[in-house]
Design goal:
The chain has about 350 residues and is mainly α. The chain has 13 helices and 5 strands. Helix 8 links the parallel strand 4 and strand 5. The protein is globular, with a radius of gyration of 21 Å. The model has no long low-confidence stretch (mean pLDDT about 95). Bound molecules: tryptophan.
Length: about 350
């Protein structure tokens, strides 16, 4: 049987928002396990090692990792069907990362757009080497599990390309070692790209300074409804979907969200709200999102108070991941020629 391997990670630096949910996490949940022809092994992790490229407050950082892991479980990621883990609990990632850094080139890393953007916003003394070599660690994350597919957003495509380039280079030097990972095409899947509520031509983003721009998975109903009420729209007052019309970006986004939550097509939504104003529509979207979030939040509140359960899931996930990662790492070390002594 030709089982495929899926892998993805997110940084545990904030509570995920509905853009992360509809653009990625929801799909991770539904694709778990698969069956028959489409059976898959999946690895989903919190990229805490990546998160320290920016200074974290240690107490908050610990809490955020617990929060995000509890949320993983609450949205329906199943520790039986997937390997769910925290990146720093699987030390093989860092070990492979060092080896791969010797197969990555200074020039290609200097060309990474994310590095250029992030370093441009920082003062000279604040650009750490981790920020620069971050894509090598990401390559290790991916290659160590021999992943076939990595569902990533557009912003991570370049990092995936780099992972492929490093894999090709290593394979050429030492023979077939790493599988070449492919981006997982979100377009053919049931995922939606969610934009900011206050600047709907920009993607909804964790790092948005405006708290009204993003809806977090743990926002309560009041907050969610309020955020949608304030969402930027246009003055046409017509619930009509017009792709590629920048004037309609706000309404297109709200319709996309409503469609994703209620599983409705754009014409269905247009019919439902024909003749109604934006006020009614925004309330309906806000309430639909809040209703969708409620069971997730109920599960979250239950799981988050059970630290022993969270930790046992983390340990099992790390053990599963580590068993797979070790195989690749041993192969790599042997090929590089590290001396092995029996003990
Ligand atoms: N760099 C990704 C982000 O910031 C997170 C990440 C780390 C990742 N390792 C990965 C994503 C491996 C996919 C595969 O969003």
């Amino acid at each position: 049987m030709n089982k495929k391997t899926f892998l993805s990670g997110i940084q545990p630096t904030n509570i995920p928002h509905i853009g992360n949910y509809f653009g990625a996490i929801k799909n991770w949940v539904s694709s778990q396990g698969g069956s028959g022809e489409t059976a898959l092994d999946s690895y989903y992790f919190l990229a805490d090692l990546h998160a320290i490229t920016v200074r974290q407050n240690p107490t908050e950082f610990e809490r955020q990792v617990l929060d995000c892991f509890a949320l993983f479980l609450a949205v329906g990621l199943d520790p039986e069907l997937s390997a769910l883990f925290v990146q720093s609990h699987v030390p093989e990632h860092t070990e492979l990362s060092w080896i791969l850094s010797c197969y990555a080139q200074f020039g290609e890393l200097s060309r990474m757009t994310q590095f250029k953007d992030k370093s441009a916003n920082q003062k000279e003394g604040e650009v750490n080497i981790g920020l620069f070599s971050y894509p090598v660690l990401q390559a290790a994350d991916i290659l160590i599990y021999q992943a076939d597919f990595v569902p990533v957003g557009k912003d991570q495509k370049q990092h995936l390309e780099l992972a492929r380039n490093i894999a090709v280079r290593f394979n050429q030097a030492h023979g077939e070692t790493f599988k070449l990972p492919a981006p997982y095409n979100n377009i053919t899947q049931n995922t939606a790209k969610i934009m900011s509520l206050s600047e709907p031509t920009k993607k909804m983003s964790k790092s948005d300074a405006n708290p009204h721009a993003t809806v977090l998975l743990l926002d309560d109903k009041d907050t969610v409804v309020k955020k949608f009420k304030r969402a930027v729209t246009d003055s046409e007052a017509k619930v009509e979907y017009r792709e590629n019309d920048p004037a309609k970006a706000g309404i297109n986004n709200l319709m996309t969200i409503y469609g994703a939550v209620c599983d409705k097509s754009m014409p269905e939504i247009e019919a439902e709200f024909g003749g109604k104003g934006y006020g009614d529509f925004k309330t309906a979207v806000g309430e639909a999102v809040a209703d969708m979030l409620l069971p997730i939040q109920t599960a979250y509140n239950r799981i988050r108070t059970d630290r022993a359960y969270i930790e046992s899931c983390m340990k099992n996930g790390a053990a599963k991941a580590s068993a797979a990662a070790r195989k690749t790492l041993i192969d790599v070390k042997g090929k590089v020629g590290f001396l092995v002594v029996d003990n």
